[in-house]
Every structure is written in structure tokens, then in C-alpha cells.
From TrEMBL:
Source organism: Pukyongia salina
Reactions accelerated catalytically: 6-carboxy-5,6,7,8-tetrahydropterin + H(+) = 7-carboxy-7-carbaguanine + NH4(+)
Gene name linked to the record: queE
Pfam family, one: Radical_SAM
Name this protein carries in UniProt: 7-carboxy-7-deazaguanine synthase
Textual note on the cofactor: Binds 1 [4Fe-4S] cluster. The cluster is coordinated with 3 cysteines and an exchangeable S-adenosyl-L-methionine.
E.C. no: 4.3.99.3
Amino acid sequence: MQEEIQIQVEKGLMLPLMEEFYTIQGEGYHKGTAAYFIRIGGCDVGCHWCDVKESWNPAIHPPTGVGQIADNAEKFSKTIVVTGGEPLTWDMGPLTRLLKDKGLDVHIETSGAYPLTGKWDWICLSPKKIKLPVDEIYPLANELKVIVYNRDDLRFAEEQALKVSEKCLLYLQPEWSKRDTVMPLIVDYVMANPKWKVSLQTHKYLNIP
């Protein structure tokens, strides 16, 4: 039975589901939009400031059929956000096909560290220094969101911005634990470089998931 489940996971027919919840998108271009979040377990990028480290180990999250996941999502919202962990660790094709068949708008939040699978209406690329995105995802990104932990992340942000398309929206977002320190840096930088916008984790200010 365990071997059969593993085969289903490898095919993307089952995914290690950490949690799913209906809330308000707090970040980036779609902030303020009601959305159903599907958080998939599994990530080896390993950001030391990650606020969902419990998502890293896929073995502790139950393999769940993508049909069940899609049926749950349909009950709540037209906007679906697939996040992690790093969702592209897995084949997202089967899940996104089911969601699109239901007429839903399907978004992904990804580091881009693995090849893109699945069909997406919106791709939020949030690159990390320690495991850079694969080259082919850059021109497909609708939104580039760089997390700012220190001043060097502004340099990294510009480096990454050179790789996305001209239509890609550019966001700088303070890492939550450093927000008081880096926010003045971000504000000054965006005012001097207005191609960038500030993204805040507004859901944390609202005290919602």
C-alpha cells in the first residue's frame, strides 16, 4: 500500500498536503483578495528565516488525492493559491488541470528552484540566494517578490529583476522578523527606484492566516 501511495505522489496524483484554508491574500499584487490557499509540504531550499519550517519535511504531511484537494478548493473561492514549502518539488500538472476544469483562477507562489509544472494564471516568483530559480521560469513570472532580510538583498533583487520580462511586476517585501530594521531601507530604495513596489505581509497585521 505504501509503495502504491508513493507512486501516486511521484505522478502528482497525490500530494503531501500540509494545510488548506480560506483567507485574504496578504502579499503582492493580489493583496486584499479572498483566496483559498493550498499549502504543499516539502522544501529543501532551507531559508533560515522561513516562517513555515514545519512545511519542509514532506513525510509528516499526509498524501492526499488531488481530486479531494480540488473539490475542497471549489467550495470556497474562485482564486486558488498553491504554496508551500516548495510546491514545484512535485508535479503540479494533475492538480492544476482539475482546478482549471472547475473554472478556477490558479496562482502559485514559488522559489522557482525546480522546473515549472502545471497550468497557472499567475506566477509569483520569490527567488532565494541559496537555491536560485531555474532559468526557464524567469520569463514566465508575473510577479517577482524578493524578501529583504538585509541590505545585500537589494543588490540581489536588482540581479533577479534583470532576468524577468518587462511586464513582470517587481516587489520588495521585508522579512517579518527584521521589518523594523529593513523597512526604512526598502522605503528609501523604492522611492529612488520606483520600478519597485513595497509588499507587506498584511495578513499578519490583520492577524489572519
